[in-house]
Amino acid sequence: MAGFQGKSVLVLGGSRGIGAAIVRRFAAEGAAVTFTYASSREVAERLAAETGATAVVTDSADRDAVIARVRESGPLDVLVVNAGVGAFGDPLEQDPDAVDRLIRINVNAPYHAAVEAARRMPEGGRIIVIGSVNGDRIPFPGLSAYAMSKSALQGMARGLARDFGPRGITVNVVQPGPIDTDLNPADGPMKDIQHAVMAIKRHGRPEDVAGMVAWLAGPEASFVTGAMHTIDGGFGA
Ligand code: NDP
Fold it and tell me: Where in this chain does the entry annotate a coiled-coil region (predicted)?
């Protein structure tokens, strides 16, 4: 596979889980991939050695650091914003600082990264943000802050698609349901309650999401923009 030969790809949050599968996919298809991480240095360096990608530390909670990282990455053909965190629980009990940090990572960083990338992105460029089916559906309590952040990405993608469409740049959101990662392990405490509302009663794999991202980044998707792409085993059906 060499579908992304000669393409420059930046993945924000690529060291583990869904982000790591996206890094592997683009690297396997010949792209020059840079990915960021926040704290998993050893894991990130192992992934870089395995794939030939470049690992760089950049905290997505730090707006200026995110903007600088995108700027330093030069003209990008593809920006994928995957870094995201959860802050789950009773909103009456939640630490407001944790909620604000979640908003910085899950909302502010994708917006500023997308805008900065678009400054130098060539015609045909792709901006892909990892949202969540919780942007559409919240079947349990305790998800408000997280769901709010993922819904915000929908408005962002619709708006930026209008702003950058005339330059041939597409902006899309991929919305996974339960995917087996450190954030949501397939054998974790939430598995039964999640599987109960799904049509396909199991977690998906990070590679499933990477496949959708690769399609959106490829030539077949040049007419797809401002749209949400749900991959959730029917969680939101
Ligand atoms: P993981 O927690 O397994 O991995 C998160 C990745 O993002 C890691 O590479 C992590 O880096 C990076 N990251 C987290 N915070 C920051 C930060 N402040 N700055 C830079 N990088 C950061 O998560 P998943 O792979 O499960 O999730 C990836 C995305 O998919 C998220 O946006 C999540 O909301 C979304 N999603 C996940 C679902 C699931 O069921 N797993 C379902 C729906 C959406 P480091 O290793 O350094 O911590």
Answer: none
Ligand 1, residue 44: give the atom nearest the CA. Answer: 46
Contact (Cβ atoms closer than 8 angstroms) between residue 175 and residue 230:
yes
Question: Which residues does the annotation mark as catalytic?
Answer: 146
Separate counts of helices (H) and strands (E) for the chain: 8, 7
- Number of compact structural domains in the chain: 1
Question: What is the ipTM metric for this complex?
Answer: 0.99
Residue nearest to atom 41 of ligand 1 (CA): 179
Tens of pLDDT, residues 146-165: 999 999 999 999 999 999 99
| CATH code for the domain in which residue 72 is found | 3.40.50.720
Tell whether 77 is covered by a domain: yes
Structural domain boundaries enclosing 147: 8-12+35-174+214-227
Q: Is residue 102 part of a domain?
A: yes
Q: How far apart are CA 162 and CA 151, in angstroms?
A: 18
CA of 35 to the centre of ligand 1 (A): 12
